[in-house]
Write a structure and sequence with these properties.
The chain is mainly β. The chain has a single domain (11-121), classed as Roll (PH-domain like), CATH 2.30.29. Helices cover 15% and strands 39% of the residues. The protein has helices at 21-25, 109-121, and strands at 11-20, 43-52, 56-61, 70-74, 78-83, 91-96, 101-105. Strand 3 and strand 4 (70-74) form a beta hairpin.
């Protein structure tokens, strides 16, 4: 499963993937370094792009990050989507069927959630 040119792109947005210790422990990213290396609020972020296809929500980090996670979330594994924005920070939380929570900083959260919900309904 990979984001190839042949896949239909339904939406694409610049985003930051919030890397916390849970995401690192789940194997989505390699450890940034030694334990305790996360920022003062116990997380870091990787800038990149979210790409929505008919079956998968992809995140691909841009090459300027020290840690460059690239992963796909099958739409049928998404249990819930939440707008968890606070103040100026626009955040979307993706809750997976296994309970794992992934957070992305992204502008236009509500519209992007609607696009994901439309793609999920079409499965």
């Amino acid at each position: 499963m990979g984001l190839g040119d042949a896949e239909t792109v339904l939406a694409r947005k610049n985003a930051n993937f919030v890397i916390d210790e849970a995401a690192a422990d789940a194997g989505l990213v390699r450890s940034i370094a030694a334990p305790g290396r996360f920022g003062m609020r116990r997380h870091e972020a990787a800038g990149g792009r979210l790409t929505l296809t008919p079956a998968v929500l992809w995140f691909r980090a841009h090459p300027f990050n020290v840690v460059r996670p690239t992963f796909g979330i099958p739409l049928d594994s998404i249990a819930e989507l939440h707008d968890t924005s606070r103040n100026v920070s626009r955040q979307m939380q993706v809750v997976l069927q296994d309970g794992q929570r992934l957070t992305f900083v992204i502008w236009g959260v509500r519209a992007f959630i609607e696009r994901i919900d439309q793609a999920r309904a079409a499965l």
